[in-house]
Design goal:
By secondary structure, the protein is of the alpha/beta class. The protein contains 10 helices and 8 strands. Strands 3-2-1-4-5-6-7-8 form an 8-stranded mixed β-sheet, with helices on both faces. Strand 2 (26-29), helix 2 and strand 3 form a beta-alpha-beta unit.
Length: 240
Amino acid sequence: MNKKVLIVGSGFMGTSISMGLGEKDISCVESNQDYRELLAENNIYQKIFSNNESVSGSFGLIFICTRQSETLENILYFCEHYPEALITDIASSKNFLKDHDLPGNFISSHPICGSHKTGPNNAEPNLFKNKEVIIIKETINTKSNVLVNTWNALGANTSEMSFREHDRNYAYLSHFPHLFSFLYKEILEEEGINYKKYSGDSMKEILRLSEADKELWDEIFSDNEVNLNALKEKIMNKLS
């Protein structure tokens, strides 16, 4: 199999994948000029492309690491233009994918790790070590072992969930905690409470989640709205 890898979107997560694999035959697509210059200075990639249309060469594995709102478009583009490659994504919710007739060379992934930090300058080569990666059952195909082996090479373990299981579970385990942190911080600021000065360690840990990219998380909240609303109702019932 072709061992060349393409990373589409080399921000924090995409660059962490590249650095973690530590191979020479990795290229990327990155639209942000500042990011491209930084990546070129650090010799992280063999080739750096500014857009999908400029990509040249062949690849065996393509990671879609763009914002969630851009993920489906990129999946469909690269599945069509690189039918021999295996395509995967790293999106945190999957509702936007489940009703589509997804190409046969696509398998959906979700690495359970990340950071409130952004950009390739904050990338961590050991980010995936001892972390879990969820593979979506409905997308599994004959090339699944290639994807599993790649995540294993990054130090991660893999598990399988359906689209429905995944979004329900991560509404509880990740999406709601982030939503609460964003809302709680807004309330503290509206009330004029100096949380930066007076918070203890536990409060700082709760508020740390609100330092993440809010635009990115708003996309996740919107996509997994049904599960988040169901959880909100359960919480309100517990409080009543």
